[in-house]
Amino acid sequence: MITLNFLENAPLISGLAWTIAYIGLAYRGFKDKTPGMPLGALVLNFAWEVIFSLIYPPKSILALVVINTVWMILDVLIVITMLKYGPQVYQKGFGINRVIFYVMFFLGILASFGIMLLGAKYFIGLPQVAHNTFSVGKLIAIVQNMVMSILFLVQFYQRKNEGNPIKGQSFTIACAKWIGTPLTVGIVTVVSDPTGFMAIIYALTFICDTWYLVAIYRELQSKGLNPWKRL
Questions:
Q1: Which of 56, 106, 121, 164 has the highest CB neighbour number within 10 Å of its CB?
Q2: pTM, whole model, 2 decimals?
Q3: What sign has the CA pseudo-torsion 97, 103, 104, 109?
């Protein structure tokens, strides 16, 4: 049985885990000169953090406000790695030139901010969110995290095909992601949803995150690197 303490502390544990993941992504991005977060995941993530930190912040829990603000600041660093190193990486992997890359990034940012801003109004009438815009943000984040988990796994195999799947990645990042979503807020969301819909979303998130975690671990070991010592 899930204890009350876990239900109360899960968001904070998740916040700490994702903070570690963001620090790792920023660090490895600059060190490896490769963006660690996939482009599609980054534009959605950055838009979510800006909108639900500055425009629709959580009103009742100060710790969540602090966590979201820290995430936003760290995401700026990850965005810088994408803008700085992304054109070369995406040209090598997908044949996309610098101009097309920046157009894609700009359109992705516009679309993502539109989704977050208008989504908060579109879903506000759902009974699950109780007319709370930040609750809408959490609902959007659930689906967004599933998409991110899929994109991280795809990115791993795309870079593996290029010969360096661990560039911009680490077991620390993978482990923090794994704890940050399916093993904390995911459990809380699933047990509170009588329909079973959230169970499907988080089941796929858990499968992808676990797959990614194991893939990164094995890849690092195969290269003679200690997965536990690589931030």
A1: 56
A2: 0.93
A3: positive
